[in-house]
């Protein structure tokens, strides 16, 4: 039996976050008898999606030192051959592309997913500059989920690069459009939500997601709508700090910490409003999931315009307008869910956010679509 063609994704760790979830949406839909994904992990701990990857025939390759081009090169040579190395690790993409070039991989993709970095120190800026040079030198393809993400990683003249293409984030929106009413009601009963006005947020507990401000919004909401409840889905380094803040504010019975969940669609359908006060975002995959559920979304100015698929569900509020203004917008939008599933589906297809569209693009970029040439592949999607 012929071995499947393998693609290596460099991701850091396959935990449940936007980029990783998008990759799983694609991986579940590809023809895995003929094409397989492997994943580089920077963590020695098991990540959320690792077991599912292995069950589907993929491999999770854990590196001791991901900053080592030598170790990346060794992994590519050991577990390959690879048709393509597709990196999603911000400026580290330069290192991954260099290692892939040294290993003789012909297709080397650097993929931008965010609009900011964790530090602006001199050493970090020096690292960014050197990695930018390597990205341009060793990548054969440049992809981004938004214009701002492309500008941040590839520079303001990214459009002039003939190897650049816009790649919309992909979700299996049909899984979110509708949920059995009984299932949603059972969840509400189990979580003690009753007839409360339920709002929510899904995201890692990291500084960029701005959970502290979200708790300030909740304080203001409680004054305006005493029955309010907040669902927080996710995990992360700052979770304990936010939990302490909630307890200090006396809102322990109003804020539900849900952890990492598989039943995201059910949880979203319990919400009246989705709140997303990020300090920066590449796109925000969860915003697509929320819109697929028809839920109004109150978002910060950091959210990229590509995240709004035209359903009239996105309301943007600047962070400096304060918690009270955010609370007012949340209450103004409560009860405005979009109920027309056909209308929602049409907009997702129009904006090419479906897995079928994403797979078609990737297969062409990987040269697995009718044997097309590199130029034919890239020009098709610029």
TrEMBL record:
InterPro entries: Glycosyltransferase_grp1
Pfam family, one: Glyco_trans_1_4
Coiled-coil ranges (or none): none
Family matches, as SUPFAM superfamilies: UDP-Glycosyltransferase/glycogen phosphorylase (SSF53756)
Transmembrane segments: none
PANTHER family from the UniProt entry: SULFOQUINOVOSYL TRANSFERASE SQD2
Protein name, as recorded: Glycosyltransferase family 1 protein
């Amino acid at each position: 039996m012929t071995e499947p063609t393998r693609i290596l994704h460099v991701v850091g760790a396959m935990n449940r976050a936007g980029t990783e979830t998008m990759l799983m949406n694609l991986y579940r839909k590809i023809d895995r008898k003929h094409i397989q994904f492997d994943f580089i992990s920077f963590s020695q701990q098991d990540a959320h999606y690792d077991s599912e990857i292995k069950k589907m025939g993929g491999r999770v390759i854990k590196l001791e030192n991901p900053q080592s081009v030598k170790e990346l090169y060794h992994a590519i040579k050991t577990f390959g051959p690879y048709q393509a190395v597709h990196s999603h690790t911000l400026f580290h993409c330069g290192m991954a592309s260099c290692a892939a070039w040294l290993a003789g991989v012909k297709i080397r993709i650097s993929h931008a997913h965010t609009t900011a970095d964790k530090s602006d120190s001199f050493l970090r800026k020096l690292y960014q500059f050197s990695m930018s040079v390597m990205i341009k030198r060793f990548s054969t393809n440049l992809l981004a989920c938004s214009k701002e993400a492309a500008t941040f990683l590839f520079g303001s003249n990214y459009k002039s690069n003939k190897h650049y293409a816009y790649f919309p984030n992909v979700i299996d929106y049909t899984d979110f459009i509708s949920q059995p009413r009984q299932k949603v009601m059972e969840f509400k009963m189990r979580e003690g939500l009753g007839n409360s006005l339920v709002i929510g947020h899904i995201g890692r507990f990291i500084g960029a997601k701005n959970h502290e401000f979200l708790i300030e919004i909740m304080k203001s909401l409680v004054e305006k709508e005493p029955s309010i409840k907040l669902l927080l889905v996710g995990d992360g380094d700052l979770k304990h700090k936010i939990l302490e803040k909630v307890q200090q504010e006396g809102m322990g019975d109003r804020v539900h910490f849900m952890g990492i969940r598989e039943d995201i669609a059910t949880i979203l359908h319990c919400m009246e409003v989705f709140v997303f006060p990020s300090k920066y975002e590449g796109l925000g995959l969860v915003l697509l999931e929320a819109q697929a559920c028809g839920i109004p979304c109150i978002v910060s100015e950091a959210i990229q315009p590509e995240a709004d698929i035209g359903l009239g569900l996105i309301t943007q509020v600047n962070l400096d307008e304060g918690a009270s203004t955010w609370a007012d917008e949340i209450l103004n939008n409560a009860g405005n869910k979009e109920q027309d599933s056909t209308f929602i589906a049409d907009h997702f297809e129009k904006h090419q956010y479906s897995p079928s569209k994403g797979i078609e693009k990737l297969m062409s970029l990987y040269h697995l679509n009718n044997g097309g040439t590199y130029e034919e592949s890239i020009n098709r999607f610029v």
